[in-house]
Amino acid sequence: MKTIDLRSDTVSHPTPTMREAMARAEVGDDVYHDDPTVNQLEAEAAAKLGKEAAVFVTSGTQGNLCALLAHCQRGDSVILGDTAHIFRYEQGGMAQLGGIIPHTVPVQADATLRLPDLDGAINPDDEHKPVTRLVALENTHNAAGGLPISAEYTAAVGEFARENGLLLHIDGARIFNAAAALSVDVKDLVADANSVTFCLSKGLCAPVGSVLVGEREFIRRARRARKALGGSLRQAGVLAAAGLIALREMTDRLIEDHENAQLLAEGLSEAPGLRIRSQNTNFIFFSLAPHVNVTLDEFVRVLREEYNIFMSIYGGEKGVIRLRTHYWIDRTAIAKTIAAVSSILS
Fold this sequence. Notes:
Blueprint lengths: L3 E2 L10 H9 L11 H14 L3 E5 L2 H12 L5 E5 L3 H4 L4 H6 L2 E5 L9 H7 L10 E7 L12 H13 L3 E5 L3 H8 L3 H5 L4 E5 L10 E5 L1 H13 L8 H14 L3 H15 L5 E7 L2 E6 L7 H12 L1 E2 L1 E2 L7 E4 L6 H15 L1
Parallel strand pairs: 1-11, 3-4, 3-5, 5-6, 6-7
Antiparallel strand pairs: 2-8, 7-8, 9-10, 10-13, 12-13
Helix pairs in contact: 1-11, 2-11, 3-10, 12-14
């Protein structure tokens, strides 16, 4: 029985075209800048996001940390959302390894940070206070249910940052999902950012890797930070080859994942005792009514053991299951999932 894995889009695996490109990849030593496939990936990634340069990193977490280390000095402060992935799910790497202090503000229901809250988080020029250096946004916002934030809002934050002598970083792990959902060019979503990370894995299906983009001098510093983090790569063209396919072929099809998520949410909503909490981009959050005679743990176990359908309980909110659609979740998988859930809850 074919596995239907809805736990995350991180479970996506390479397409046949990616596997073929990986097998044929031309490689060299990336530390010497001699890997032509990595160089091509970095050049195309920078151009696609409208930035000067890029560096290939092993993960979005590494990319975010390289960005913060390149932008900030020890003792500097970063303003970011209280449910931001950088703050909540990256082990406090900025503080552990960079001596950088997070200053959190509330994430709003629409996944934005209020400009007055950002303004209130800027420390005065006072020797008792850390120097506020950077604002970090997340698009799409994971903990806000996969909501995208608009180019207009990001431009307003960019203008605010410039007026206050700050820099702007975007954790764009799923920035191409945001662009698809908003029907805009990804360049417009990041035009005001000094740096952006995005994942080649997740919805883009590459097996490993993210890219950090920004100005050339910033990328030089970020590359030094990558070295300190043990992230310098050698014959990485094997991985970069899949990343090139991700950039060239996968970004324009993400709207299919969003449409499938909507269809799945609509079908699940008809199951007795199931409540859809939200559906945005490729995210679905749902819970079960108190009267349902099955716990979430039992529900997930039965789906896995009897139907080979994988779901996971969301750690950010009690009693909620989070699903993500991706390339390997097609209409047949959606129909099977709806039927299985309906059978369990009937």
